[in-house]
Specification:
Length: about 375
Amino acid sequence: MLWLTGGLGHLVSFLLVLTVLVFVHELGHYLVARRNGVRVETFSIGFGPELFGWNDRAGTRWKFSAVPLGGFVKMFGDADPGSLPGEHLQEMTEAERAVSFHHKRLLQRVAVVAAGPIANFILAVLLLSVIIVVRGQQVSPPDVGQVLPGSAAEAAGIKSGDVIVAIDGQPVDSFETIQRIVEVNTGTPLDLAVKRGGAEIDIRVTPKVTMETDRLGFTHQIARLGIGRKGVDFIRRNPVAAVWYAANEAWYLTTATLKAVWQMVIGLRSSDDISGPIGIFQLSGAVAQEGFIPLLGFAAMLSINLGLINLFPIPVLDGGHLLFYAAEAIRGKPLSQRAQEFGFRLGLALVLMLMVFATWNDLVRISKSWSS
């Protein structure tokens, strides 16, 4: 994609990917809200002053705002874009209550809030499906093509020509499966079932955990066995099968991300992998230069991350609202407005702290790349 080169290309690809992901996320909220009879007052891509927009027949203001780092859907009854209940809820007429988000049944509100992250997961599956249909699904046999000198595999006695059929009792049908299991390892032993010369033998190996820096200066903690594959195959699937395989891929990316986050929480993985808008800006431009298919894969990964982050139980995020609704289901009535406002402020502080930390990581990476 030659048109996406240089600083302008980075900016265009960054805004293109982010706008699509945010639009789909907010569209999920919007469609389910409208389906449940909620009046939507504003659909915004970005925050801050409006750049341009228009009103539709239903009275929704569709607009693009000055700060393109997110978006929101403001529904009737909301006090602000964070969907806190307004103070005027009790004074509403029956007609107004009928279209107010906060007067809908609990399950209806849950559906509206959950629709945003769900839309991101659906988008990721669709993007991955396109990749599998157009380029094909990468599938390589679980054969060991080579063993690197001094590697964990060599120390454990793995040999070229071995076929790895299971890891810790989990069946292995491709080299990609081996990579996925090993990469999220934190240096704990793995029990391999290996076919060699017609016999099956058991081998215990402890992957070597290394900090690897990519060409953009991003540092990643990755475990390696030190083996190479025999070859790479790309299998094109029909659209129906592609959706199935894409859903499996999306599930893997989701669980791997959650596992990595948990490893950070308990201290088994470095938090250097956390990246903010600057890092996404760099990555989107670099990936776009590699072609349209890599950009689709990058967008799918970001869409999954966006969906996951929004499900975290932090007030301000969708997961925080779902947490409030869980409390409402237990108590039989909503939390007080004061409690919700306190949670909102606490959640906002946590999100801002995370953004500052992520941006700091990005700046440290940039400074290291300049000094090297």
